[in-house]
Design brief:
Elements (H helix, E strand, L loop, with lengths): L2 H22 L3 H5 L2 E9 L2 E4 H16 L10 E14 L2 E12 L2 E15 L2 E14 L9
Parallel strand pairs: 1-6
Antiparallel strand pairs: 1-2, 3-4, 4-5, 5-6
């Protein structure tokens, strides 16, 4: 394995970890900084294109987790596992990972991320993220999505 491959893999792993940590904390400016300007976020119900639309998706999700309503949660924690990264070159990669979401009530929902990443000026970005929900606890936050 070449040095650039190690750097690329670790950079992509860090990108995904920052997505989880910043999103769960409601730091949407920090999350949006992880996306390329023309990024696409695909959810089961809608595709979001560009920073403005992707921000609206995070804000809508945040409103659903706030106080009031049966699906509210005091905290959200995303965990990713089995992250497989395929490098197409020094500046392009794709990846797949399973995710699990916990709230203060326990396991909420789970599924898969399928991603495309790109590096520009030494920094990695999401170019595309497709979110698949494989299951959700009835009445939970993910069930109401």
């Amino acid at each position: 394995m070449e040095h650039w491959e190690l750097v690329a893999r670790e950079s992509v792993r860090d990108l995904v970890a920052r997505y989880n940590a910043n999103g769960d904390a409601g730091r949407f400016d920090d999350v949006l900084a992880l996306f390329h300007a023309d990024a696409v976020m695909e959810l089961p119900d809608r595709t979001y294109r560009g920073a403005s639309e992707i921000r609206s998706m995070f804000e809508r999700a945040s409103q659903r987790t706030g106080s009031g309503g049966g699906a509210s949660a005091r905290f959200i924690r995303h965990f990713t596992a089995t992250h497989q990264i395929d490098l197409q070159g020094p500046g392009q990669a794709s990846g797949r990972a399973y995710y699990l979401v916990l709230t203060d009530r326990g396991v909420d929902h789970w599924g898969r991320y399928v991603d495309r990443y790109r590096a520009e000026d030494g920094r990695w970005y999401f170019v595309q993220r497709k979110v698949t929900v494989d299951g959700a606890v009835p009445g939970g936050w993910g069930d109401s999505a």
